[in-house]
Automatic annotation (TrEMBL):
GO molecular function annotations of the record: NAD binding; oxidoreductase activity
Amino-acid biosynthesis is among the record's keywords: no
Keywords: NAD, Oxidoreductase
Superkingdom, taxonomy of origin: Bacteria
Protein name: Hydroxyacid dehydrogenase
Span of domain D-isomer specific 2-hydroxyacid dehydrogenase NAD-binding: 101-268
Organism name: Arthrobacter zhangbolii
Length: 305
């Protein structure tokens, strides 16, 4: 069987090729359409309209790893299979997490802002106690890369099943216990109701003042006002943020003038970087849909990712 698949908002060449490679056929939406692939920005309201008009759609492929924009639709349609890009974009995001970590530890951001020759500064990642929050594809890729510098990596995840390669694994409930010994805290967790302001004023206070915070997940995982205060009061050595809350970070925001903050415009993954990974996810899922195999990147509606 060749699954009939629609692509919205537009059928780009790479998505067309991926569907065909998976054994499917791309057609306009109709009562016979089994799958819907989102390649970019389709509003929540527009997607809801499509789902109401075509109740036989059994599979929706979302374009990103995060699903918070469509969370209520996913919860309301448990009979449909929703898949995301989770795990598929681990390589580029993990690479950027390491780049930000090295940059902020070695004071590259300070040197980039300098207008005259200064004194050498920075600290090494080698041997540091690193805590990675989130053990999905991105978190595990960060673990793999950071392990070239240190054996002391703690992984924080929803359950206590050990993450291979980590020195230790703790549950979300154990986060408070590891923060006082953490020198580098890297956030790679999904955005859910439970992770909003995961790092707040209380948890920032648990970190030692020589610690660094790196966020490549979602901006709201961090209480921005609390972070601004911690940096301004020298209670944190530095922060590297690829995501912010609000996002985009407004001109004139205190973080722009904070010398200990390195900010990048959500650049952990560009379209050119993730396109081949997304195409592979689409190809595999079209094939799996055709043969009745489990889909990759299935969204857990209750967990929110």
């Amino acid at each position: 069987m060749e699954p009939s698949v629609a692509i919205l908002p537009q059928a780009s060449d790479y998505a067309l090729q991926a569907v065909h490679a998976g054994g499917g056929v791309v057609e306009p939406l109709s009562p016979s359409t089994l799958g819907l692939i989102l390649t970019g920005g389709l509003s929540r309201d527009a997607l809801e309209t499509v789902l109401l008009q075509y109740p036989h759609l059994s599979w929706i492929q979302l374009p990103l790893a995060g699903v918070d924009a469509y969370e209520d639709l996913i919860l309301r349609t448990p009979d449909r299979q929703w898949t995301s890009g989770k795990g598929a974009f681990a390589q580029p995001v993990g690479e950027f997490a390491l780049a930000l970590t090295l940059a902020v530890l070695r004071s590259v951001d300070t040197f980039a802002r300098a207008r005259s020759w200064g004194s050498p500064q920075g600290v090494s990642l080698h041997g540091k106690n690193v805590t990675v929050v989130g053990a999905g594809g991105v978190g595990r890729e960060i673990l793999r890369l950071v392990s070239a510098f240190t054996d002391h990596v703690t992984m924080v995840r929803a359950h206590d099943r050990p993450v291979p390669g980590a020195e230790r694994t703790v549950t979300d409930a154990g986060l408070d216990g590891v923060l006082p010994g953490t020198e580098v805290l890297i956030l790679a967790a999904p955005m859910t109701a439970a992770t909003k302001h995961l790092i707040d004023a209380r948890r920032l206070a648990l970190l030692p003042p020589e610690a660094f915070l790196i966020n490549i997940a979602r901006g709201p995982l961090v209480d921005t006002d609390a972070l601004v205060a911690a940096l301004a009061q020298d209670r944190l050595a530095g922060a590297a943020l690829d995501v912010t809350d609000p996002q985009p970070l407004p001109d004139g925001h205190p973080l722009w003038s904070e010398p200990r903050a390195l900010i990048t415009p959500h650049s952990g993954e560009t379209q050119d970087m993730i396109r081949p990974h997304f195409a592979r996810r689409v190809r595999n899922n079209v094939h799996n849909l055709a043969v009745g195999a489990p889909l990759e990147g299935l969204v857990d509606a209750q967990a929110g990712y």
